[in-house]
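Entry:
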Amino acid sequence: MKIALATLALVFAASLILSIGIASSNGTSHSIIHKNGMKADTTIDWAGMSKADKKQYMRDVVMPKMKTLLHDFDTTKYANVKCVTCHGNGARTGEFKMPNPDLPKLPGTKAGWDSLNNGKAAMMKFMSKTMKPTMADLLGIKQYDMKTGTGFGCGNCHTSE
């Protein structure tokens, strides 16, 4: 369930891969405007991407999208969204490991979830209706399905109590 998280040649290879498209199990497509102004329509296979490709994709696609969503949700709290906002100290060390123990912990009980849903209703709605589905889409992963226990969900970013 955990998503595991340069040289000129790697940059060139990543650009080439993004330019021709990357296969995905669910066919999630995204338009990328490269620094050279070229547009590439891509389909993402997050699990199959190299660390260098993931880093470039996060920088070129995920960060601009998520930065806007976070900032639009709370301009004060998310005034300066950077890699550390989600990845914590891992962004400083180059690890980028997720889930990130620096993020708020998920409750371990139904009562804990109820308390969180009642006490931070706007944040919970934003996370469940905006952040989670957008991030799942950007990574080309289906959203978490409670029946199968698979997919992208809260536990991909947050640790539990």
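The helical segments are 8-20, 51-73, 83-87, 89-93, 110-119, 121-139.
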